[in-house]
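Input record (one chain):
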Amino acid sequence: MMAAVAALLFWIGHWPWAPLWWGVYTAFQVSILTVDQRFGGRGFWPIHVLYFLSFTVAGAPTWHMWTQVPYAGGAAAVMFLCGMIAQLAASSLAARTLFLCSIAPLAAYLLIVPPLALGPEHGLYAFAMICCALLFLVYLMIVWSGQQAVLAEFQRSRAQAQAASLAKSAFLASISHEIRTPMNAVLGAGTLLARTELSPEQREHVSMLQNGGAVLMQLLNDLLDLSKIEAGKMKLEPTALDLRGLVQGCCAFWRPSAVDGGLEFEVEVSPEAPRFVALDAVRIAQILSNLIGNAIKFTERGVIRVRVTAEPLEEGLTRLSFSVSDTGIGMSPEATSRLFAPFEQADGSITRRFGGTGLGLAISRKLARMMDGELSVVSEEGAGSTFTLQVPARLAEQAAPPSCDASEAEEERPHAPFRILLAEDNPANQRIIELFLRPMNAELTIVGDGLQAVEALALGSYDVVLMDVQMPVMDGLEATRRVRASGGPNAETPILALTANVLANQRAACAEAGMSGHIGKPIDPRALLTAVVNAGLEARSRRSAQAG
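The corresponding structure, as predicted from the sequence alone:
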């Protein structure tokens, strides 16, 4: 814009200094940009000086307009100055000092130049101009001050919202830990009890216990997932995966439930679908499991169909379509319109008849959109529903090899039993974990806090350490840091976090402290055995290499 002003001043206003004026102003603007990028700008005092000098130069042509271009020049000068002041007021809401430094020379030009340029013979005209300029400046400052007040209120509200978000996260972390810790004992005891010889009635009671605990844990996980998504803290982890293996694994899990309910269960993966793609396998499986579980829940007779197709996009990219169809109760158009809202179901009777919170579909759609995809539904009341997940995916050459599971690892395990240290303050959980590890015939040492763990690890060598995080005297994070920094016999021993802290930031804190892995509570015994065996084999392999 200043280049256009310079051209008008040179050709119409006959101001020979216009090109030089434009060059000096441009040089100041370049200097401002350079200083702002290098030093952060607003908090650095030279930027204020540069802005003052820049707008001092910017207003310089107004003297020529007032003195050499009568009548029209004065009007143009006022419009030029007022326009720059208004622009500054709009663009400098969050920088009060910067605004004042910029507006000062322009206000001086607006108030001082007219009487000096017009002289005593036009004093009344100059006085009128000064009064108008003062009224404009006062009005502008009132508006700008109001904007500042609104901005300050917005900043306070944002700070309060951030504080509330932090409090919510802290509450969720606390309640998650407090629920998961006793649930680990409840579900663990149920798992162990199910392995014993029971009467039919006792087995039924144990099954009720396990099913109720699983529902409670699913609700807790859904609440945590929804909170993380809404807070923008849910992170996707796309990796190469075997598409057919993923779909078949999800369907194999749900097929017995469908068959037990008298339903047919059909799975079709299109031949055109690539075998290996890069996606977040955990989240895709989570969405598919939710859709298949809902289809089985709401279908009394008929068939469940799972179909996967692919549509090529640009090179190396494909659009995958996962559809889950059922012949269940279906939904009305009004019900489908609010189906994906949190805590919503088709109608109130759904909750009473089938249970559930209505969180699963809301989370699934949010996850789909995080993957640049979409989750949609087509349904007819009384005829069934079809849910379709569409996501773009990059082609991959090969999926990452799976880690060794418990059964495979047991075959490779050396005859010498693992030496394991368990740091856990809850007596019930100590007993549950001890019983979970019993099939390994491990040499298990149990301590009740982090300080005891540090002392035990300084005295003897272990293959694996299972470390709770929240313990009295010394927590697991501090204990891990001390062990890693000690240089002792277990400075490199795998330390697995065995904790109810399962949020992403809590996992990150465990990794930063030096922990080698994370096992969330309630503990899946198979996951525990797999993690322990893999970590133990890794530790022994490393020691053998160092000894050789």
